[in-house]
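Protocol step 4 of 6: structure prediction from sequence.
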Amino acid sequence: QVQLVESGGGLVQAGGSLRLSCAASGRTFSSYTMGWFRQAPGKEREFVAVIRWSGSDIYYEDSVKGRFTISRDNAKNTVYLQMNSLKPEDTAVYYCTADPYYSGSSRWRYAYWGQGTQVTVSS
């Protein structure tokens, strides 16, 4: 079992930055793929970024490429999402996710989810 707890959300002006953290419990964290999804009001949950266990394979949704950076610290059982140049359209609840096998962009394939953290970008 893996439990995920997100933090770092908040209110920021357009052009600003936030860093989200996701702390994971469980001894097998280092072998799991970790990802971030987001869900805006009235919209489906969408893929943002994913990082495999080694940190060598990283993928981003097109709209966040060049602005967001996903990273992980296996010694701290934590995955991060550094978000720069934030836009109002980035406003959403951001969810951390984990899976021992899957590393794609489908939200249906991930086994574990956090409760989410709200990110609000004002214009």
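Step 5 (inspection) to follow. The two ends are 40 Å apart (CA to CA).
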